[in-house]
Amino acid sequence: MTNLSQVINFEQYPIDSLDSPDGLEFLRQIKEELEKQGSCVLSRFVTDEALETLAAEANQVAHLGYQGPTMATPYFFNYNIGKGLDVDENHPVNRQGKRNLRQVATDLISPDHLLSKLYRSEMMIYFISKVLGQEAYCNKDRYQSLNISVMDEGGCQQWHFDSSPMVTTLLLQEPDTGGVFEYAPGIRSDEDENFDVVRDVLDGQRENVKQLSLKRGNLSLFRGHYSLHRVTEVAGPSQRLQAILGYATDPNYEGSADSSVLHYGPRIATLESSML
Hints:
about 280 residues; alpha+beta; Jelly Rolls; six-stranded antiparallel beta sheet; four-stranded antiparallel beta sheet; 16 strands
C-alpha cells in the first residue's frame, strides 16, 4: 500500500489539492483552530485499511521501545532552563513528574513500513509546510525524526513542554481506558515563561486545562512548545501506540546526541562511537 489515496482519507481532507479553493479553506480552518485552541485534531485522517496496517507494523516493533527517564520536569528538553535561577525545589523548573513510556527510535522503524512512507511523503511535507506557513522538512536525526511512543498499563507522561513549535502525532492504537491528552494552551510565550501559571497547573488547578480524548486514526497538530501538556495514566492490557512525526523548518536539524542516549538508551552511544 504505497499509493497515498489508499492511506489518507482524501474524501474528508483535501491533502492532495491544498491549492484548490477547498484545500485553501481546509488550511484556513486548521490555522484558525491552532490559533484559538493551540491544537487541531483531524479524526479518521487515515483510512481504516491503512490504520490496520499501521497498527500492525507498530505492534511488530513496540517491544524495541526504550524506557528512558521515569521522572522528569516540564522542561525535559531544555535542561539548562533553571541555570542561574535562585529558586526552591517547588519551582516548576525543579518539579518532577512521573514518566512511564517507551520510545521506538527512527532507526528501528523499517523504511518499508507504511508509517515511514507516510512520514516522508512529499504530500505530508507539503501539507505541514502550508500549515506552518514556511518550508518544512523531515527531521534529519537518525533516531529522533520518527518515533513510536508505547504506553503499557500504568503508562503516562508528565506535564511538559515540547522543543518544537508544532508537534504532529498519529494515534495508532487506543488503550482500554485512560491515556487522555490534557493541555493548557498558550501558557507561555517567547517573552514570558509564566512560571506562576505553570505552577498552578502542576498544583492541580484546572482552570486553564483542556482535554482531548484522541481516537485511533486521529492526526493531531499541536503547539506543544507553548502549551503545557501530559498524557494521563493508561489502564488495561491494550497498549497506547502513538507515532510522533518530526518535521522541522531547518533542513539540517538534528537533535543532540545526549538527548538520543537519554531517550533511546546506551546503544546510541555505542552506535555513534562506531561511526567516528
